[in-house]
Amino acid sequence: MSIHETLEYKDIDGNVYSGELYTPSSKYSGTRPGVLIFPAFRGVTQLEMERAKEIAEECGYVALVADVYGKGIRFTDIPTAVTVIRPLTSDRNGKFKSRLECSLNALKAVPSVDKTKLAAFGFCFGGLCSLDVARHRFDGIRAVISFHGTLSPIEGNSLDFLDGISIQVHHGDLDEHVTKASVDAFHEEMRARNADFVFVSHGKAMHSFTDPNSANIAPSGVGYNEKADKRSWKSALDLFEKVFV
């Protein structure tokens, strides 16, 4: 069993966010590792909440599904979401960074969380969020994972080494939304940063391969792939187990 509650938190400007927090049952004593989950473009959905619940119940970690848009802001279509996402991703060292950090701070503030054992993962837009958590080298982060996420580096940032952070990227080999040029640039960035990274290209998998409802989200170029979904999730859980020792 796990305990689920909606967690409201604020950034430095006083903006209010609403995440979903899952904490493990009382059979786990002491502080526990914390995992931050960044949703895809729609914001917090049942998909991310199910992952958080599993992490809490099966692994004994504290899991927070983060909100980077703001309380009550959720989307059902891509064009509307883009009107919010673009201003954020054009300011990755400013407003976007602040929203990532305040979500991480909200997780750290949970009394049962071990602030030295933290990780983040996300889907699509959430994958970019997770990778930027590593790029900013936030305290306590041991691993980040991207599922069919945007890979673009932060323009103009120095390529500081990412020592002490394990990075795992799961990419669909048929992903039309993340170009080969983006994949190549990501590899170059990780090499330049001396990063401990694993990049997995899942055969026959398209964008959004982890979401069974992906076909209802976009008209083309996306699709669920059960093998890629299960394989990538197992790899993620294996990584958490290794870095949280």
Automatic annotation (TrEMBL):
GO terms for molecular function: hydrolase activity. This is DLH domain-containing protein. It comes from the Eukaryota. It holds the Pfam family DLH. The lineage of its organism: Eukaryota, Metazoa, Ecdysozoa, Nematoda, Chromadorea. Residues 22-243 form the Dienelactone hydrolase domain. SUPFAM superfamilies: alpha/beta-Hydrolases.
